[in-house]
Amino acid sequence: MNPINHVAIIMDGNGRWGLKYKNSRNAGHKAGINTVEKIIKESIRRKIKFLTLYAFSTENWKRPQKEVNYLFNLLETFLKNRIEDLNKQKIKLKVIGFKKFSKKLNKLLRISEKKTLKNKKLQINLALNYGSKIELLYAFKNIIKKNEKINEKNINRYLLTKNIPEPDLLIRTGNTKRLSNFLLWQLAYSEIYFEKKLWPDFTESDYGKILEKFKKTKRNFGNI
User: Fold this and answer.
1) How would you classify the pairing of strands 191-194 and 169-172?
2) Most distant pair of Cα atoms in the chain: their distance
3) What's 6-215's CATH class?
4) How far apart are CA 66 and CA 26, in angstroms?
5) Is 210:169 a contact under the CB 8 Å cutoff?
6) Which pLDDT tens digit goes with each residue over 21-51?
7) pLDDT in tens, 174-185
8) What residues are labeled active site?
């Protein structure tokens, strides 16, 4: 049985769900928050230590400004309403990405990270303004700047996921089969599960089935 230490999720399908059921992409993003809550709870129940959620990519800035604003307002509301509860549950919040947001949101993210810094039950890595290609360029530039050797160890040292173990598995909802510039280096040997359901329809049961399937998967890591 494979142990599960780190699960990464591309939460795809919110906008499509919103258009299908509410005639509004934003309604889908709001509904997706409920799924986030359920998956956090189930991850704790299953004693998973790291959960990485792809919340906003470097490419998502191309979306309509109203939708982008709504997403960040949704995040602000979530942090204001839930950070104390997350802290009580001993959940650590870490942002991976490049913090180029409003002063208000940047401050809220800093406060949330600081408040939960010492928690150890579950670490949630929130990928915000994250893009793997930019992350890798950032790592290489730092290695060159400091005149260090370009090797796997040093690249890992300068990634935004420094000190975070590589994901055991990646789950992508929304019936789309691509990585979308997410953790390209870190997912080298992760198991990948593509789920047909849109993110707001994804349940604890769906999550559990994937985790159980992963446990029984033979992982070779290049061996036989």
Assistant:
1) parallel
2) 54
3) alpha beta
4) 9
5) yes
6) 999 999 999 999 999 999 999 999 999 999 9
7) 999 999 999 999
8) 12, 60
